[in-house]
Specification:
- 2 copies of one chain form a homodimer.
- Chain A is of the alpha+beta class.
- Helix content of chain A is about 15%, strand content about 20%.
- Chain A is built from 1 helix and 3 strands, in the order βββα.
- A 3-stranded antiparallel beta sheet of chain A has the order 1-2-3, with no helix packed on it.
- In chain A, a hairpin with a 6-residue loop joins β2 and β3 (about 50-55).
- Chain A starts with about 25 loop residues before the first strand and ends in a 5-residue tail after the last helix.
- The interface between A and B is medium-sized, with 23 and 23 residues.
C-alpha cells in the first residue's frame, strides 16, 4: 500500500504501511537518506508481484527479516 | 558481483558474494525458495546503481541490515 515509484521520487517510498502480516517474501530495505528520514521497507508479494510497504518499527517485520537472514522460512 | 537477472531465472540470484564492506545502501533480501535453497542478499550501490551480492552469513552484513531496520546510519 502506498508504494511510490523507486529512485526518482525525492520523497519517502512509503506513505502508509500494511498492518496485515505477510510470510516468506522478498523484502527491500531502504535506509534513511537526505530525502527521507525514515527507513522504507517494501515487500514484493510472491503470487501477485504487488509491492507493499511494511512498518520498520513493527516487531513482526523485524522477525520476518531476521528469519530471512537466518535462512529459515518465516 | 555475480548478480543474475531477477525473477525469471530458476536458480539462485547470487553466484558469488562481495567481501568488501559497503555502507548505507538499499538492500534486497530474497528468502530461500524451491529454486534456491540459500537466502540471496542484493545491495544496490548508491552512486553507480550497480547491484552486488552480499554474504548472508557474514556478521557485518547482518549488522548493516539491523542498522537499517533500526533507522540508523550504518
Amino acid at each position: 500500500m502506498g508504494h511510490r515509484g523507486l529512485g526518482v521520487d525525492p520523497r519517502c517510498r512509503c506513505i502508509e504501511t500494511e498492518s496485515r502480516r505477510i510470510g516468506k517474501q522478498s523484502v527491500e530495505l531502504f535506509p534513511p537518506s537526505s530525502h527521507c528520514k525514515d527507513t522504507d521497507i517494501v515487500a514484493t508479494l510472491k503470487i501477485s508481484g504487488k509491492e507493499i510497504c511494511l512498518d520498520p518499527t513493527a516487531p513482526w517485520v523485524k522477525k520476518v527479516i531476521e528469519k530471512i537472514i537466518a535462512n529459515k522460512a518465516p
